[in-house]
Amino acid sequence: MSHIKIIGSALPNIPWQEPPTGARNTPLWRCSQNPVIGRNPLKGIARIFNSAVVPYEDAFFGVFRGEQTNGVPGIYLGKSRDALHWEFESNQIQFVDETGRLFMPKYAYDPRLVQVEDTYYIMWCQDFYGAAIGLAKTVDFKTFVRIENPYLPFNRNAVLFPRKIGGSYVMLSRPSDSGHTPFGDIFLSESPDLEFWGRHRHVMGRGSEWWESLKIGGGAAPIETSEGWLLLYHGVAGTCNGYVYSIGGAILDIDHPSVVKYRCQTYLLTPEEWYEERGFVPNVTFPCAVLCDADTGRIAVYYGAADSYVCLAFTTVDEVVGYIKENSVVTPEDTEIGRR
Ligand code: BMA
Fold first, then answer.
1. Which residue from 64, 88, 126, 129 has the least number of CB within 10 angstroms?
2. How far is the CA of 209 from the centre of ligand 1 (A)?
3. Is the CB of 15 under 6 A from ligand 1?
């Protein structure tokens, strides 16, 4: 039984495996079927990774980053009964503007998918005279209507909270520069209508620990728990052989989520398996989505591996929140409201 509660719906049919026996260094354990999506999954698509899923009706839908054979990423819709085996649409999601006219981004990557009330929102990184955030909504996974771009360039890793807080939509993002940013902190912004964004707050900076000392970025949509918002994010180390992306965890204040209550000093998962260490970009574990069952506290984490695969890891809310609290170190910059 779970002592820490996930505030949400029962979802008994999410993918799940019991933890392996024996000692573990971290509270996440990998799915024995990893990678759950392999290479060349679709004609014209070399790799699918960094993708997000939600439950929808009696199945699961996902938005998938598909790297086309010309190297340009786009977003593809996938459907699954078990959230493990996916059927993909062969064409990219056809985004339209508010008048119904086709309105496609030049490229689109790292999509997140978040349900707020009856609507599903997709946020991704795209060209807006530089890398910035794209935003769209759907209610039926048939029509995808783009909303005004929320931020100026340069920005990446936008993640919406799954409910309004204090009457506003709240979204995390990671402002950056035009290149493959060697810096970056997580901020949040509020909006009354998903079009006008303001009340920007600093949430957390890159950490003092080596694994997240270069930059960080939001990962999966925050999970509402009795301890606060559980945020799984990515933290990046710069090594002599390039960047290494690990998965980190923090708990944000439930009413004022720019306040970090707990922040785990150690990573929750780091590249260790062949499919994380070897691929198009080696040494990447990049979380983009979670599926949670409020009844059992089970959490399935979807993460991209080595910019080549989609993988799954499991944990429980008790184990992961307990671990984050036990290993938490917060600085005054983490715990302040984040306004200067
Ligand atoms: C980041 C993003 C991710 C990617 C990662 C590692 O900047 O572009 O899509 O997984 O780099 O290449």
1. 129
2. 20
3. no
From first CA to last CA, the distance across the chain in angstroms is 43
Q: What is the pLDDT of residues 95-145, one digit of tens each?
A: 999 999 999 999 999 999 999 999 999 999 999 999 999 999 999 999 999
Q: Is 50 close to ligand 1, i.e. is its CB under 6 Å away? A: yes
- Gap from CA of 53 to ligand 1 centroid (Å): 19
Phi, psi of 325 (to 5 degrees): -65, -45
Residue 113 burial class via C-beta count within 10 angstroms: exposed 0-12, middle 13-18, buried 19 and up:
buried
| Unique residue bearing structure tokens 């360039």 | 153
Residue 2's pLDDT band, with cuts at 50, 70 and 90, is low
- Please state, in angstroms and rounded to a whole number, the distance separating the CA atoms of residues 314 and 302: 9
Type and span of the H or E element at 224: strand 223-225
- Ligand 1 atom having least distance to the Cα of 109: 9
Whether residue 232 contacts residue 287, with contact meaning beta carbons closer than 8 Å, is answered with yes
* CA-proximal residue: ligand 1, atom 2 (nearest): 110
